[in-house]
Amino acid sequence: MKNSRRPVLRGGTVCALAAALAACGGGSATIGGTVGGLRSGASVTLQVNNTDNVTISSDQGFVFPTTLADGASYNVSVLTQPVGENCVVANGAGTVDPMADNVTIVVVTCSLTSSVGGTVTGLAAGNSVSLVLSNGALLPIASNGAFAFPGILPAGSSYSVGVGTQPVQQTCAIANGSGVVSADALATVSVSCN
């Protein structure tokens, strides 16, 4: 005679089975990766899906603070480039897998786009100063902060920075305004206005 008894699932077994099935998706993942080539003193601001900004100030790993659900799309981009550098994102777009594994494959690589740059301080609001590089490049500056002349000069060549046009009712002085270009480095000039 056949056994007509059906298996009985007890309450604890049902809960364990439900928990095991819940672990098969429905989770969330972090999005992150590494930054390389960022020069000392520079920073780059990254974002995922046009929000969730992270500012990185050295070559290092990064993770965005907000997690994304499995199946969600992500797109990592550069919001703010470092002065005198350009950073590009590789492996920055995709979809979180069904297991919601953390994404760690984003690679941000930065490279110099300038040989001579620096910082302006003391410039009054609404004023501007024009700087001139020895190769004739003119750079108008309308605010305090970092600046960079566009372009890479040959390593070993001399550079000199001067003031082309002083701001109205102010005088700007330059420190460390001349030197020799080093390969893969940004020469740092200080411009103080008063």
Topology overview:
Layout: H1 11-22, E1 28-29, E2 31-36, E3 44-48, E4 51-56, E5 60-63, E6 68-69, E7 73-80, E8 85-90, E9 93-95, E10 103-112, E11 116-121, E12 129-133, E13 138-141, E14 145-148, E15 158-165, E16 172-175, E17 178-180, E18 187-193
Parallel strand pairs: 2-10, 11-18
Antiparallel strand pairs: 1-6, 2-5, 3-4, 3-7, 7-9, 8-10, 11-14, 12-13, 12-15, 15-17, 16-18
Could you explain how this protein is built, in words?
With 194 residues, the chain is mainly β. It folds into two domains: 26-112, Immunoglobulin-like; 116-193. Helices cover 6% and strands 48% of the residues. The protein has one helix and 18 strands. A four-stranded mixed β-sheet has the order 5-2-10-8, with no helix packed on it. Strand 12 (129-133) and strand 13 (138-141) form a beta hairpin. The longest helix is centred in the first third of the chain and has 12 residues, at 11-22. The N and C termini lie far apart (104 Å). Mean pLDDT is 90; it is low at 11-23.
CATH architecture assignment name of the largest domain? Sandwich
Residue runs with pLDDT of under 50 for 5 or more positions: 11-23
Helical/strand content category:
mainly beta
Number of spatially distinct domains = 2
Oligomer: single chain
Using only C-alpha atoms, the radius of gyration works out to 27 Å
- Beta-strand content estimate: over 45%
Distance between the termini: 104 Å
Helix content: under 10%
Strand order of the largest sheet: 5-2-10-8
Q: What name does the CATH topology of the largest domain carry? A: Immunoglobulin-like
Number of strands: 18
Count of helical regions: 1
Choose one word for the global shape. elongated
